[in-house]
Write a structure and sequence with these properties.
The chain is mainly beta. 14% of the residues lie in helices and 47% in strands. It contains six helices and 32 strands. The chain has helices at 2-21, 46-62, 102-107, 122-137, 185-192, 202-213; strands at residues 25-32, 37-43, 69-73, 80-85, 91-96, 118-119, 145-154, 157-165, 171-172, 176-177, 218-220, 225-229, 232-237, 239-241, 246-255, 263-276, 281-289, 295-303, 311-322, 326-338, 343-356, 374-386, 397-411, 428-443, 448-460, 470-472, 486-488, 490-501, 507-518, 530-539, 543-553, 565-573. A 16-stranded antiparallel beta barrel has the order 15-16-17-18-19-20-21-22-23-24-25-28-29-30-31-32. 18% of the residues are buried. Residues 1-22 have low confidence and may be disordered.
Length: 574
Amino acid sequence: MKIKSIYFLTLSFFCLIAGHAQEDRLLKYEIQGDFYRSGEFYFSDSLQLWQNKNQLLSELYEMGYLNPLTSLQVQADGPMLWQIVTGEKFEWVKISRGNVNPVFLVKSGIDLRQYQNQAINYRQVAGLFERILINSENQGFPFASIGLDSLVRKDNTIAGALDLDIGPFITFDTLKITGNSKTHPNFLANFLQIRPGEAFSQRKINDGVRQVRNLPYLRWSGEPEISFQNEEATLYLPINDRRINSIDGIIGFLPNELQGGRMLVTGQFDLALFNVGGRGRNYELHWQRFNEFSQSLQVSALEPLVLGSALDIRASFSLLKEDTTFLNRDFRIDFGYRLGANTYLTVFSRRQAGDLLAVAGLSELRRLPDVGDFRFNSYGMGVEQSWLDDRFFPRRGSLAIMEFSIGNKNILVNTAIPGELYEGVDLRTLQYYLRGNLEKHFYWNSRWGLFSRLSAGWMENPNLFINDLFRLGGLRTIRGFNENFFFTNNFAFLNIEPRFYFDTYSYFMIFADVGRLENRVQQFPVDFPYAAGMGFSLETASGIFNFIYALGGSNTQDFALNFSKIHFGYTGRF
């Protein structure tokens, strides 16, 4: 008995080897009828044979040959022969709208005239059905079904009518947040435009999933779910709050050398609060002062969906005091509107003011100084298009931002400057600027990625001052230089940053920055700054620590170790 078992196992083993060693079979085919075509393919099993045969028949069906005749000849020691006769080519005489409302067809983007006297293509008919069903589910009828009725065949032509079963009308119920987010459901309902009582729309749900990704303070913890009951749809959103509120600062007290007995307050303070009160309100404050004469301040506030509308309002104010040279103030108010899940449009009004501070010795000038007193009132428009997978920490996708502004600039006459220097100068001129930013994130695997960014700006006015110009340099633009090191009226720069991820939000990186800058006001030669360096970003339980070592070179700074810059900081998040 034991010998028989061994024999059986051995025989089965050799049969299995023979089965795997069997060569692929060859099938030759011929298509005859209205046209002739021949070919061949190899197959290793019946499933592959069925797939190849089905592909050939599908091609005939799409051409209108709905009833081809086939025959298969099998030879023991030769290739298989499959003969296909196309048969009659069927055409639509007409597809009528049947019980479908003509307005409904227009909203679905369907013109039934394109199906008259055309070869029958079942894929086109399936596409027709799909468009009708998509339009149905976006107008409150997610359970609609569609088919053809009253089919009539005459010779090789077919006529039919659409038959739509619209199903029950479904409305949205209240949103349910199933994650730990403290975001108010009414805010999310207005933000996603999914309000109780409105018609169900699958498009709004799909767009809403993408829009939540554009909110940096929220993240998905799972997939959204829908339940239907009593002709109402309840949407369950598994979203969690993300800890991105930040506070960071350092305060120093130094003896004031110009005012004895008093202390000089220096330092830096940054505060960013997001989704305040669970209603999408954002507030930011940034202050910096490292010596007695220079400091900067930026304050902004965002109020989304004002009075339940789809309009956002953002107000911001910035102040820059550049040692004893000039003082700039900038007040801006933006009105934002979401054109879609990924597109955000803004229109804004902006008032900029610049004043010359150091007036000693100006009476001896022979020409107007490069820094001046001005008022600039402008109006502009911006657009933002996002394809990022995560707004707060993107790894894949792109982000494009474009902004244009135009307005009247008024030059103020400074009484400390000889009046004749203003003769022949147009004190009221048109000034405009265009600024854009394009980011691209690549993510090849769990360890390797790349961040790239191209930024450019252009400013035009016959009487530009230094305190008009764009400011570049530092951690967020061209690294390896002090913050706001460059003044420029036209610029373009590129950042390339390969990254090696060793945790979800932690990575090592190297980088290279290169740019082209023009300063027409000071008549400097065109500058081509460049920088290179390395660093890392480390996520901790309470914040993010960043460290970057950079070397930069330009017309005014040598690419040398003694000019290297270290950018580091810890941002606490809560």
